[in-house]
């Protein structure tokens, strides 16, 4: 009867501008799809050149090389007898579009440009591409000569059309179009399209996966149909980790689920589905059928090819499954670990170095590296030859077989405790014990001699010797002395990263890992060019609250008992003198706010788009049980003063794994000034006025200024 269609989607670990590697991964996905009987293969957005090319999209080379890759795909026997849907940039009438190129048996069927471009948060597609604004309109596209010579076609359809095969009708969406309020699949479904495809470049954010899954399932719940989603996976050259989750859904239910985090460069999902299930599902939705009778039809490109076989009565079809979501703690364990592995192998370095302080943040970073080693050993055990080859190259041993995460950790991970006269024995012991349990190569050193040398230079030049507050010095002196310690640690971290392996007789260098969390960056509670300055930071987009939960997860799942004492200790920078041998300095006292409060401020500032006055108005309701309006006003003012005073630090922030939607990353996600009028005089006056009015209503005597 020709009713059971077999389709494939994939998640590919593409790399920006790695045309050769990208082509190889595309070929592998097509081979897997065909071997499993698929007649249609969908790939991720812009998979030929890699999604993260950024301003390289302006270069004619990027367009040229994309067409050269397309030429290789078209002429290969591997792409015969399967509809291939690939993504690349295309210049049409001197306008650059983000396109799907759909071809079959050396013939291009349709070039479909993206209609709704992603232009918020980390996305800047309108900088490089123009949206196709001609709904249901198709034009002639004149092919480059290298493509004409393969296809024998001079022109092909370019625009907003759908494919009509011998047994069904397919329509394409591209990433953002699924998220748009007027998604194309709505009208396409009403016009009889039965299979919707979506090629995505969607990155990981904590607790986001369910939203994507819900959107896909809801796309066919109201309108019926089959929805196929492909996605990029891995680190393709910047702060984002694309988290796969390729999936296939039918009539509102998931029938195939891909992994969200894995070290597999190529993952292919194949499903066989019954078109009659779509038709019968739609038949009883009268509101849909009434709307369909009035819909403006799409141009159809006829394809002399079927996705089904004539004799398919006995072909088994896929049944609905329950999607399994990772907990936030699992996401932190897996996402940044996979990102680190991609960065390590693609940078061709020999491992990581982490200044391990014995606190929660650096310990969480160490646990992520340990989780990475777990993932590598698991991938090798499961037969991943690519991971094994990368691991052998990284450790410079072609016979090496990574089986024990601790042993791998010893080879690729160096931790370093940098003590000073202000460090406690407790943090030293905690760092050493954690290093032993994860297996890292651990170094203990003391920075006092370097600190004294630097301060000594200042004293020789000025004739003045700065002192800590505890020793009678001013706050300026004390802060400067703390910063010297912090910055010397950064210098030493890079020295040891470059030469530790040399001293051990091992080739290569190490990447320096930073460990400042998203809340500290938001508040600016870090020294510019201290150990927060590193090559990359796997926790820079994660809140302190989530990191504490992650530490607890590691205690339970990795049996890292050293983390118990780290969890119970108050966070401290250990930059001020000890009192009776004990730490007197704590982070929250220094900041004048708690980490829990910082998370609230961060979400209101970025996600809720709240300035000082709006934040105050929201918090007097949120915190009405614990704070008076005057206390809320004081807290909000203090946060915005500290945030604006320290915003300049975000311009040099270490590239961090993006995991949180209130990240203050100045590179592209959170675009703000870095020189503020830190008095916020107008805004704070509005807050003061509102406090006075509220206190009058409550019969409280009014104080002139709220501070």
TrEMBL record:
Superkingdom: Eukaryota
Listed EC numbers: 6.3.5.1
SUPFAM superfamilies: Adenine nucleotide alpha hydrolases-like, Carbon-nitrogen hydrolase
CDD domains associated with the record: GAT_Gln-NAD-synth (cd07570), NAD_synthase (cd00553)
Molecular function (Gene Ontology), one example: ATP binding
Residues in coiled coil: none
Protein's GO biological process: 'de novo' NAD+ biosynthetic process from L-tryptophan
Pathway where it operates: Cofactor biosynthesis; NAD(+) biosynthesis; NAD(+) from deamido-NAD(+) (L-Gln route): step 1/1
GO cellular component: a single term: cytosol
CN hydrolase domain span: 5-275
InterPro entries xref list: C-N_Hydrolase, C-N_Hydrolase_sf, Gln-dep_NAD_synthase, NAD/GMP_synthase, NAD_synthase, Rossmann-like_a/b/a_fold
Keywords: ATP-binding, Ligase, NAD, Nucleotide-binding
Family according to the record: In the C-terminal section; belongs to the NAD synthetase family.
Annotated NCBIfam families: nadE (TIGR00552)
Known partners and oligomeric status: Homohexamer.
Protein name: Glutamine-dependent NAD(+) synthetase
Species per Swiss-Prot/TrEMBL record: Lanius ludovicianus
């Amino acid at each position: 009867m020709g009713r059971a269609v077999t389709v494939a989607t994939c998640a590919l670990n593409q790399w920006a501008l790695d045309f050769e590697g990208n082509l190889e991964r595309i070929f592998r996905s097509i081979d897997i799809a065909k071997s499993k009987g698929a007649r249609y293969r969908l790939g991720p957005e812009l998979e030929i050149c890699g999604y993260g090319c950024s301003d390289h999209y302006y270069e004619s080379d990027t367009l040229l090389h994309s067409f050269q890759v397309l030429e290789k795909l078209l002429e290969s026997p591997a792409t015969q007898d399967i509809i291939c849907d690939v993504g690349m940039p295309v210049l049409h009438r001197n306008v650059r579009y983000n396109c799907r190129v759909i071809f079959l048996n050396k013939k291009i069927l349709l070039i479909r440009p993206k209609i709704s471009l992603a232009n918020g948060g980390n996305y800047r597609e309108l900088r490089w591409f123009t949206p196709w604004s001609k709904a249901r309109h198709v034009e002639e596209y004149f092919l480059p000569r290298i493509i004409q010579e393969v296809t024998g076609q001079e022109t092909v359809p370019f625009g907003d059309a759908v494919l009509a095969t011998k047994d069904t009708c397919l329509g394409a969406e591209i990433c953002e179009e699924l998220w748009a309020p007027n998604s194309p699949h709505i009208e396409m479904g009403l016009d009889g399209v039965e299979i919707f495809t979506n090629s995505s470049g969607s990155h990981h954010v904590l607790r986001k996966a369910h939203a994507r899954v819900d959107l896909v399932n809801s796309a066919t719940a109201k309108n019926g149909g089959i929805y196929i989603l492909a996605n990029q996976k891995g680190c393709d050259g910047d702060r984002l980790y694309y988290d796969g989750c390729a999936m296939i859904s039918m009539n509102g239910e998931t029938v195939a689920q891909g992994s969200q985090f894995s070290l597999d460069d190529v993952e292919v999902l194949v499903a066989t589905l019954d078109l009659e299930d779509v038709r019968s599902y739609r038949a009883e939705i009268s509101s849909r059928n009434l709307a369909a009778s009035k819909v403006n039809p799409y141009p159809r490109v006829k394809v002399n090819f079927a996705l089904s076989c004539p004799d398919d009565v006995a072909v088994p079809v896929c049944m609905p499954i329950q999607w399994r979501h990772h907990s936030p703690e699992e996401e932190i364990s897996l996402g940044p670990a996979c990102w680190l592995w991609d960065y390590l192998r693609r940078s061709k370095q020999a491992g990581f170095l982490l200044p391990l302080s014995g606190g929660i943040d650096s310990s969480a970073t160490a646990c992520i590296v340990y989780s990475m080693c777990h993932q590598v050993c698991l991938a090798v055990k499961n037969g991943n030859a690519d991971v094994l080859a990368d691991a052998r190259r990284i450790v410079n041993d072609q016979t090496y077989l990574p089986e024990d995460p601790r042993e791998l950790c010893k080879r690729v991970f160096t931790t370093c405790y940098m003590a000073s006269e202000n460090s406690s024995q407790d943090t030293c012991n905690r760092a050493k014990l954690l290093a032993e349990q994860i297996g890292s190569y651990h170094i203990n050193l003391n920075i006092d001699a370097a600190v004294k040398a630097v301060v000594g230079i200042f004293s020789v030049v000025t004739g003045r010797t700065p002192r800590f507050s505890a020793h009678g010095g001013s706050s300026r002196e004390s802060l400067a002395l703390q910063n010297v310690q912090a910055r010397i640690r950064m210098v030493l971290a890079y020295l040891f990263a470059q030469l530790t392996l040399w001293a051990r007789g091992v080739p290569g260098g190490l990447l320096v890992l930073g460990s400042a969390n998203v809340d500290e960056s938001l508040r600016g509670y870090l020294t510019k060019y201290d150990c927060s300055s590193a090559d990359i930071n796997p926790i820079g987009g994660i809140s302190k609250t989530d990191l504490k939960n992650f530490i607890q997860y590691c205690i339970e799942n990795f049996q890292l008992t050293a983390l118990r004492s780290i969890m119970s200790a108050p966070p401290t920078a250990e930059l001020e003198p000890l009192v009776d041998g004990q730490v007197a300095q704590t982070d929250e006292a220094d900041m004048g706010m708690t980490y829990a409060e910082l998370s609230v401020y961060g979400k209101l500032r970025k996600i809720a788009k709240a300035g000082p006055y709006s934040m105050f108005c929201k918090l007097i309701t949120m915190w009405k049980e614990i704070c008076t309006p005057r206390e809320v006003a004081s807290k909000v003012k203090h946060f915005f003063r500290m945030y604006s005073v320290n915003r300049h630090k975000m311009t040099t922030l270490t590239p961090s794994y993006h995991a949180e939607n209130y990240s203050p990353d100045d590179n592209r996600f959170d675009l703000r000034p870095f020189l503020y009028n830190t008095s916020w005089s107008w805004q704070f006056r509005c807050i003061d006025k509102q406090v006075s009015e509220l206190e009058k209503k409550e019969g409280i005597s009014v104080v002139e200024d709220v501070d």
